[in-house]
Design goal:
alpha/beta; 2 domains; eight-stranded parallel β-sheet; 420 residues; TIM Barrel; 21 strands; elongated
Length: 420
């Protein structure tokens, strides 16, 4: 009964939980036939656009439906873990998390699946989760949530009930405001964290009750804003709604392909890229009056830019600028802030005389400033700074299509009463 209590008090509330119950009965059956139809719809859409999705699977569900899950792998999808059972990891002890994370990986790999990534059920996690993921050998985590106000920007009217239902998930997942944060991956003790963006299909169908046109406008607005900011849109889907969101997903992928400079990739490929980019090395030395020699060691597709100068891959370039094109920060700045600047591609130096550097952070913001707010402020002064572009050469932004598979039948749902 813990699951019912969680749904009624935290996840949905009594009113939305009732409508969710009716939707479950409509979308699932005693056999997985309805789910198989929706999975085919999802895979058909992404394959039509040449997209490899990342499917995150709850282990006990995969164990009950191994042939279906292997079939998705055989169609080319990347597989990742979505919990051992579909429960609230933030409420578990460190030891419980360790056991369940390891059990999830062991069970899924036992089915012959390659498992490198993870997303927590309900997008609920804490520091113990990251420790457990590292101990189990996971390479990336796609749990953190960022909330985009796209439906507001598109002036889509919502009822008070819809706003309340959506805010409930924002609060449950501790979603960060995308307008005041930088929606980019980061590396935490060797684990790449990929930011997931909402509204997702569940929000728009079951909480906000948007029609197809409004859903398309929301997702297209999100991909356009993400491209403008040079960030990443990790879209989260739930195949049970595939027939309801397929046209909107198709329109969003059409728009991303039309742009021509959005890198569409599965989570594992993005995590590999981010890890190698994170390890890039750079030095900046004087090269005559008003000139600086920049030496870079990094992946072949990495772009280093400074004003109009550009270098792809490892090598050197000389730029003309009166000040050293790096950011200075004093010892009071946190490691988290320096890491976030590094994530955004800015090169930071500590100590020495800041007078000759392009930007003295100490003179712009107090060291107590939130890390993402610092990055947004630095962007305003980016003209004279070196920057390692976030994405491979030729790409301005990134899109990843992910889908959570936690149940395929009514029996799977019933088992949550026991498993949660």
């Amino acid at each position: 009964m813990r699951w019912l209590s969680f749904v009624l008090s935290d996840s949905r509330g009594p009113r939305n939980a009732l409508s969710r119950l009716l939707a479950i009965v409509e979308r699932f059956g005693f056999s997985p036939r309805k789910s198989e139809i929706n999975l085919r719809i999802l895979m058909d859409v992404v394959e039509r656009h040449g997209v490899c999705p990342t499917l995150l699977i709850t282990a006990v569900t995969a164990l009950r439906h191994a042939d279906i899950i292997r079939g998705l792998r055989d169609r080319g999808a990347e597989m990742a873990a979505h919990g051992y059972v579909h429960n609230d990891y933030a409420s578990l002890s460190a030891e419980q998390q360790r056991r369940q994370v390891q059990a999830a990986r062991t069970s899924l790999e036992g089915l012959g699946l390659e498992i490198r990534g993870w997303r927590c059920p309900y997008s609920r996690w804490n520091g113990d989760t990251l420790t457990a993921l590292g101990a189990a050998g996971f390479e990336y985590d796609a749990t953190p949530v960022y909330d985009w106000p796209a439906y507001q920007q598109e002036r889509i009217p919502l009822s008070d009930d819809a706003r309340e239902d959506y805010q409930r998930f924002v609060d449950l997942s501790s979603a960060r405001d995308a307008l005041t944060h930088v929606v980019l991956p980061t590396v935490v003790e060797g684990l790449v964290q990929l930011p997931m963006s909402i509204p997702q299909d569940e929000d728009m169908v079951d909480r906000l009750h948007l029609d197809l046109d409004s859903m398309s406008r929301v997702w297209i607005r999100m991909i356009r804003d993400m491209r403008e900011r040079g960030e990443i849109f990790v879209m989260c889907l739930h195949p049970e709604r595939a027939a309801l969101f397929a046209a909107s997903l198709d329109a969003t992928l059409d728009e991303a392909r039309r742009m021509g400079d959005v890198w569409i990739a599965p989570c594992g490929e993005i995590a590999d890229w981010w890890r190698t980019r994170d390890a890039a090395q750079l030095t900046v030395e004087p090269a005559g009056e008003g000139c600086w020699r920049i030496a870079v060691t990094g992946p072949d597709a990495m772009e280093t830019v400074c004003a109009s100068d550009r270098l792809t891959g490892s090598g050197t370039m000389t730029v003309r600028t009166p000040r050293k094109p790096v950011v200075h920060c004093g010892p009071a700045w946190s490691n988290a802030t320096r890491q976030r600047l590094h994530d955004a591609g800015y090169w930071v130096e500590q100590g020495g005389d800041p007078a000759g550097l392009a930007l003295n952070l100490d003179a712009v913001l107090p060291p107590s400033s939130p890390a993402d707010a610092v990055v947004l402020k630095v962007r305003e002064h980016a003209e004279g700074l070196i920057r390692l572009n976030p994405w491979p050469a030729g790409f301005r932004a990134c899109l990843s299509i992910t889908a959570d598979i936690d149940v395929l039948t009514l029996y799977d749902f019933a088992m949550r009463l026991k498993e949660f």
